[in-house]
Amino acid sequence: MRSTADVIVIGGGIHGCSTALHLALRGLRSLVVEKDYAGRHASGVNAGGVRQLARHLAEVPLSVASMELWERIGDLLDDDCGFESHGQVLVAESEAELDQFRARVAQLRLQGYTHEELIDRAELKRLIPAVSDACPGGVVSRRDGAADPFRTTQAFRRKAIALGATVLEGVRVTGLERRAGMWRVSSSAGAFEAPVIVNAAGAWAARIAASLGEPVPLEVMALMLMITDRVPRFIAPVVILRGRKLSFKQLANGTVLIGGGHQGRPDRDANTTEIDWHKLAESARTVWELFPAMRGARIVRAWAGIEARMPDDIPVIGPSATAEGVYHQFGFCGHGFQLAPGLGALMAELIATGRTNLPIAPFSIARFAPAKGANATPDSTPDLMRTTPGGQA
Questions:
Q1: CATH architecture of 83-144+220-309
Q2: pLDDT at position 243
């Protein structure tokens, strides 16, 4: 096992593995250090939505670019990742909500984006015959779809390794030190050195950032999902709501995956999550009301992974504001899965060339720099040396 690399990536989720793969495509050797295994938390246990629809405006350019890679994901990874493109539909539950969607689509048109399309009640019923007649319309992004998240994460991992990356799983980072232009990364498997570090540590990334003198107000989340038994096929697109928390899709085997943003209780240090069944009942009630065809279905399983959210609901992407040779890639707020192919390419471009072809200024970690004299954020203590079971570091 090499003790040096061109780049050390801390975090082996889909984003860390995507960056390692794209670095390899540029001829750079990367070492990925993952405390659990690839896909243990956010990357492998999410809803698998491949969604341009309803993105924060700052994310739209990256999401559109990433979609181009999704549409040829089999060529990139030698695995189609279960990706199916049946579209995603944002359902309006009232005329007032439909008016809000209309304004959003008009705003995107002014910026040159056409992937979101306003639809009326008739088109909504054509796309989703089972939806309640009370819904007046919505927005569709017809190229969107869904993929298998764990399979996709593993495909990125395998292809990165095949191209020369090294992935160490079950290895905790315990310290970082800068020496003569090189970063020394101490870990439970020994020390490694590289001139560049990528902080892709998910919910544990704030501890790494804090150890570098740039604390961020990261919120640890446990977004919950549940799945039903098999029901007759009745829907093809992925459905999302904004007024009430819901994402909803039927898998090829007939089971229905239900999510949308309700949170369980995460314990980052214990590396565990606890389901909140009362909140899941709210999602089930929403499905009951909007999709009468689901009223006889049974919930057979529920789960949650540990994820990271930033206060402004967009990730941290780009170079450290305090440490030379460090790049951040975390805080995807429960919607980072679709961005992974494009963002891995962007990070590799940034590391290799010092620039990007897409705008990343809104994602700078400097936006969280505290005002002079301000109190520290909850993750501001440089506790990278923690050795608790759940710590990334």
A1: 2-Layer Sandwich (3.30)
A2: 84
